[in-house]
Amino acid sequence: MTPYARALVAVALLVSLCSACVGLPDSGEVQVGDDRPASAQDSGFPYDPRPPQKGEEPDEIVGHFLDAMLANPTTTAVAKQFLSSSARDSWHPDRQLITYDDILTPSGNDEVSVTLLGAHHLDARGVWRGELPERQRTLDFGMTIEDGEWRIDDPPDAMVVSDAFFDARYRQVFLYFLDPTAKVVVPEPVFVPTGGQLSAVLMRALLRGPGPDLRGVTRSYIPDDLTLDLTAPVSANGLAEVSLRGDAAPLDPESVQLMAVQVVWTLRQDPSVRRVRLTINDTPISVSGTSSDLDVAMGEQYNPVGPGAGRDLFALRDGRLVSQTGSGVVNQTGPFGTEAAGLEAIAVDLSGTRVAGVTSDGGSIRLAPVSGERERATTVFSGGTDLLKPSWDVSGRLWVVDRNSGNAEVSYVTRGRRHPVRVPGVTGENITRAIVSRDGTRLVAVLREPRQDRVVLSRLAVDGSRARGTRARVIHGDAEERTRINDIGWYSPTEVVLVRSLSDDLSQVTTFSVDGSRAVSSANVPVELVRDDIVSLVSSPVPETPTWAIAASGEVHELNAELDGTFPAEGLVSLTYAG
Fold first, then answer.
1. How many other C-beta atoms are found inside a 10 Å radius of the C-beta of residue 33?
2. Domains: count for the chain
3. Nearest one of 330, 329, 373, 337 to 355, comparing CA atoms
4. Nearest C-alpha neighbor of 295 from the set 264, 256, 262
């Protein structure tokens, strides 16, 4: 840590320890997140930063301006005092949030520069955008003299805070939109400040919509022009009153249903909320067959893991399809269960009724019913080179990635037809693993590079027979770290589980968020070391489903023993859950 950064930390600690003699601010606007004045019950040490002092030099003004953004409770009232009168009116810190691990000492006179180390950024919606581009890591502050004192005349439109401040004062939550077919909700992770009323923070974030970069990927059924009239207060018996105002065109019953689903799925993250009363311009909104109060448990049929998602294991035994429920193994009666079909990997659809199998030569995919003695198998994909295990989504699309000798091709199959999909950053690359989320909006792949493997993510948009993928971005992997990733899988709708080799007989299993942030879910598998050469994972986004690690020898390791799952029976290969 630099001397300047150590000084900032020392000041913060001194103030926090002396909080009994330093009054908390009782006024000043909150510029980021909840616009309700922060409560004295906010978590963390209170910190009342020092305002500008007479005779401070330009570099000191900038340094103390950055320190003022670490105020707790969150407020920009002191930070604004370091700005010129014109800059106070034009500064928009809500447009971006920048976090840093360390900073270099500010330098300069008429223009002061500050270089951030280990910097990341979030957009105005609170979406994690990853590492701050290198050219933006040096912040420039134009200075001016006002009333005989130096002031900042051109600040960056951003809140700039330390990693420690961010980790303590922000939390990851999820905003729920709908997939293009309106079959399931799609969780979008964002970060919001802690300390405010969570239901109000969640509703304001939800009303912003999914953002232009998700056009065609997700959809909101909440009219664009609506705003939150009140602070979504929650009564003692758990009723959240959400009062919206604005120009809302007449809503048809289906749109009302889907809007209500978005609201209750988002607000159920507030543990104090049990029911929601939703009004638009004082008119109560109700869903057919329910009262005007919406139970937060409604809309379970839109669960992102898919309707009727099961926990049964499917596998091949002696080349034939079987399923395991508990400790019992059942031979399936469909074409792949009655005779060996020469398959090396299988994928069962979400309803558990259809199975797709990659042939042993890696070039074709055959599709058949799981059960049915008179059913037949058909070839739905041929001409491949090195097909990875496919993935099913809720719309019945079968997503296929062909490694194609380091020149990957992505496509999906529906109704027996193959549809190529161009995914920049995946198409044409050396891809070793790929999975698609059950909602059909996320493609996660392992990108093999000369020195290391990295995990990338693309968002998928499907409109009829047309589909596209956004440019894939890295969500896991350090470019400086040499590592090989053996497998990935879904651990929840927003978390990926990964295994990598540390040595010939030691593997590491961990989970991470699909946004690539440092967020840690309470459901995460802790970083776990397995003394074996783990080559594949068997996981599911369905809650309370055991995750299995398969060694090169075929030995099975259970990763979350607290779930008390039944071990897969001996002799089973190509283990998988539905999806």
1. 24
2. 3
3. 337
4. 264
255-299 pLDDT tens trace: 999 999 999 999 999 999 999 999 999 888 888 766 679 999 999
Domain with residue 452: its CATH number is 2.120.10.30
In this structure, the answer to whether residues 398 and 508 fall within a common structural domain is: yes
> What span, in angstroms and rounded, lies between the C-alpha atoms of 542 and 544?
7
Give the residue numbers spanning the domain of 212: 197-302
Instruction: For residue 181, tell me if it sits in a domain.
Output: no
Alpha helices in 362-520 (DSSP H): none
* Residue pair 12/47 in contact by the 8 Å Cβ criterion: yes
* Same domain for 541 and 436: yes
Last residue of a domain, one of 275, 302, 329: 302
| Two tokens, residue 392 | 């099913």
Residue with tokens 């447009």: 95
Whether the model pTM is above 0.85: yes
Say if residues 537 and 499 touch (Cβ distance below 8 Å): yes
Burial of 24 (0-12, 13-18, 19+ CB in 10 A): middle
Residue 270 and residue 326 share a domain: no
Identity of the amino acid at 329: V
Same domain as 148, residue 61: yes
User: 31-84 pLDDT, tens per residue?
Assistant: 333 333 333 333 468 899 999 999 999 999 999 999 999 999 889 999 999 999
